[in-house]
Amino acid sequence: MKRGLLLFFAATIISTLCACQSLSNSKENSLVSSSVTTTHDSSVTNEKITSEEREDWIIVDKSVTVKELEYTINAYKRSAKSELFEADKGKTFLLIDITVKNKSNIAATVNSNLMFDLTDRFGTSYNDTSLGALSCLDDENLEQLDGHIAAASEFRGGIAFEIPKVTKGLRLIIQGPAGDGRSPVVLY
């Protein structure tokens, strides 16, 4: 019990240090990013991502609109480990790069834990976001897709899950900010 608690605190401290390092290097990031408390405005422009930055990423480029928010699934990537963590035995990390455009005339809030469900073709849900999966997002210079989006603007970020390696037929189900309006996007 003490060992598990010690490991939890060590992982939390390491994660916090990584997050601080990520914030200090945010100006050097090649992907458009933002902090949780920042309001994203329309003056931010997405830079073109080179093929080097997209190594091992599988381009999806599918869009769905749910309650005046347009979600574009840009790409996804599977990863067995981050700089700090490895996926559990028989599992892998799934990273999904998403752009959200707010088409309304009022600000909107995006919450990656409440608005995205990952399921397979049998309906099994994989909504486990582990510290390792979040660390993989950091390794890829992707901010977690959480925060406020100003009216008529967009935000690019990522969500991450820890899933079994043998999973097939994955669908990302996106719901509106109030839990209404569900729309699935087939990943693979």
UniProtKB/TrEMBL annotation:
DUF4352 domain segment(s): 60-180
Coiled-coil region list: none
Organism: Ruminiclostridium cellulolyticum (strain ATCC 35319 / DSM 5812 / JCM 6584 / H10)
Record's keyword annotation contains Signal: yes
Highest taxon listed in the record's lineage: Bacteria
Signal peptide region: 1-19
Record carries keyword Signal: yes
Protein name: DUF4352 domain-containing protein
Keywords, in A-Z order: Signal
